[in-house]
Design a protein that fits this description.
Blueprint lengths: L2 H17 L1 H9 L6 H13 L9 H14 L3 H13 L4 H15 L1 H18 L8 H6 L1
């Protein structure tokens, strides 16, 4: 097995774990002659070469990605990686703090958008955010 094949296989493993089989199958299945090579590139280098390194946890990478994607104003990718952050074990309280940090370091409009996109994902995933205990969270 070549190093490139190993990176691709590792990338596919992480891509599926974070984004889910349905999303990856749709992306790969929808690839055509125009973008198939790019999909393979993303799998091998972004997922295998970065996520597959094992130095940072998937949770830590999710936190970093959400901050960067919010700063870059990439709402589609933010939603995708927000869902991935949930898959990687981040709690509602963790995700709220990330959106707050986005507002502080990227600007209030970016924070507003992050919270709006977060709410959309929570609703789509059927996650009840009405039970989060703000007072308790702030006392910790």
């Amino acid at each position: 097995m070549t190093n490139s094949t190993k990176m691709h296989d590792m990338g596919m493993k992480y891509r599926r774990e974070v984004l889910g089989d349905a999303y990856v199958d749709k992306s790969m299945g929808g690839a055509d002659d125009f973008n198939r090579g790019f999909q393979e590139f993303v799998t091998e280098y972004c997922w295998g070469g970065s996520w597959g390194r094992g130095i940072l946890s998937k949770r830590d990478r999710s936190i970093l990605n959400l901050g960067m994607l919010a700063a870059l104003n990439r709402p589609h990718e933010f939603r995708l990686h927000f869902r991935g952050a949930i898959n990687n074990g981040l709690t509602v309280a963790d995700l709220r703090e990330i959106c707050t940090q986005v507002a502080i370091y990227c600007g209030i409009p970016a924070g507003i958008e992050a919270f709006r996109l977060a709410r959309e994902v929570f609703n789509e995933e059927g996650i009840d955010i009405s039970t989060i205990d703000v007072k308790h969270d702030l006392e910790d």
